[in-house]
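Annex B, item 7. Sequence and structure tokens for protein A, then protein B.
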Amino acid sequence: MSDEEFCEEESVSNTSKKGDGNFRKARGEAKKGELDEQLKEYINEWRKQRAKEEEELKRLKEKQAKRKEIRAEQEKKLAQQKKEEEERLRKEEAEKKAKEAEEKRKRLEEAEKKRQEMMKAQKEKQTAAGPGKGGAKKADSGMGNVQDARREMTKTKEQREEEKKISLSIRIKPLELDGMDSDGLKAKASELWEVIVKLETEKYDLEERQKRQDYDLKELKERQRQQNKQKAIKLGLDPEALTGKYPPKIRMYSKYERRTDTRTYDDRRKLYEGGWDVLCAELLEKTWKEKMDDWTKRPKTKLPKWFGERPGKKAGEPESPDDEDEGPAEAPAGAEEEEEEEEEEEEEEE
């Protein structure tokens, strides 16, 4: 091949290579454009879907916020209604208590007024009766004091305090000193002095009445104590058994017999002395004595000598006499007779 032909072929190959490269490049750019278009479509679609989701989420959040507001308003209304109901119940309870206290106060005021009127009438009767009828009056007042003391003992501390306050509110009246001249003040002072004297007199009378009541209570307690002593003696108990705070335990002969056990402690203690324990101890003692007697009366035998030495003999012990050896040697005489009979039988068999 000549040089010209070679150059022509090389130029042709170079042009073909350049054409192939341009084609590939154009084809790659076309594919890239298609991919870009698809990617743009996907991105636009995703953005549309995302916008829809955001709108839906925003709508749900607004709906949730509205529900929270509605619920908060409802809870507020319920709390307000509950508070109003509790306030109403509290007011009703307070009104009820106030009404009961007012009724009780009025009742106690009426009772205090009646008591004062009764005491006033009683004092007038005492002053009108004179000293001649003092004995009967004293006896009657004693029984009245006992009844009044029992009535007062049944009242609680709160009742007594309340009655005291009401009584003081009735007795102690407010002083109206405004617009009084000297004569009015003197008259008021003399009136208060008379009230003080009257109250001191009532105080003395009440102290004496309390002393009489204490004496009556002491007398009643002593009388009750004596009655309990007599009752205990009739039941066969200790005289001081029924005078304590708690009654004594009732002892029965048994749970099947409804009879009171009047025996003393010593008598009841002796019931448990002896019995099967004593019998068992006596039987064991008797058996032990019998066995001991049999043991002491047993024949004392010794073992025969074995090669001139007693079995069980310890070193250093003295020799036993020969007469003691004869006893046990003669003892097995029956054994020798048995041996002779056995020999005779053997001979007969042969």
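Protein B:
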Amino acid sequence: WGFCVRGQLKMVIPFLVRCFSTAKVKPHSVIKDISSNLLVSVSMGWNNSGISQQDLTNNLKRNGIIKSSRVEEVFASIDRKFFIPDVASATQSYEDKPQPIGYGATISAPLMHAICLEILAPYVTSKTRVLDVGSGSGYLPACFAFLNRPSGAVYGIDLLSELVVNSTRCIQQAVPDLAHRISLFAGDGFNGVPQHAPYDVIHVGASCKSIPEALFAQLKTGGCLLIPIGASGQEQTLTLVQKIEDGSMETQSVMSVIYSPMYTQAESSMQQQQLRTVEPSLHELTQQLSSLEGEVRNWQGAFKVQHGRVPRQLDMTSDSQMSEILSSIRVAKQRIKRKEAELLAGKSS
């Protein structure tokens, strides 16, 4: 699930100025600060990207997106690089934009993760039970598990079982000390995870036309739900929903956004079938790898002619063009390995 930043920037900016439309309750001060600072960040050209997780965190703090010490700590501690499997370069993980994580899904931009964490962090305590709908990469479940240490529980649900498997592995690699308190499930996000309800906090990482009844029903009295409401591909409203004592809801409009839509099980199956028809075959991936390795040999030959010696590893990694090619080779090998595993699993079944 992804918040569209650069591709839809011209569409998003006008929407942002219409923050805090009519709401039933007084806007939360944290939300007001975030929305005003988001406009500043946009005017600065989204200058949040970094070359490391700490650098990214520092930039988001400097630009007023990260405001609280708790969110700063969790952001600096949970490294995005573990949750983005195929990146061309090490620093790409820290760019302030959505990144593909496979199967047509994306990890949201760091900006949006920071905003959601700032909104929800005040509601997350050491014993809080959190549900992340559209858990995708697993990054936000890891962040919530960091926030509700030492005894809180975090649950996530995603339609794609492949993503659940990948994100579980990412969490175990990134935060092994937190992984035992995170449980991820494959299923329809509209239905939530009723077997572990009620939840103090529910985060929905994809847009819905209205608030799903099942998710609100699984919210504890006094709990809150953060969800983008609106039609797919159009202006949506990031909305904070709270369940009050009589079981009714109070809503706050936070800001205007554009999220990918949340799909039902049937819609997702159709979409994935379409994606599989255009995914490169093992033969095509092998050809890509062969082409990249040919570029390496050509570069090595040119280097030997120019310098009279065979290039060392340092020569190759210090050259920006060759460093990019080597990164692409690593990604290609990872994709081939994953494709081979998929084919082997298919034969076994």
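Comment on protein B: The chain has twelve helices and nine strands.
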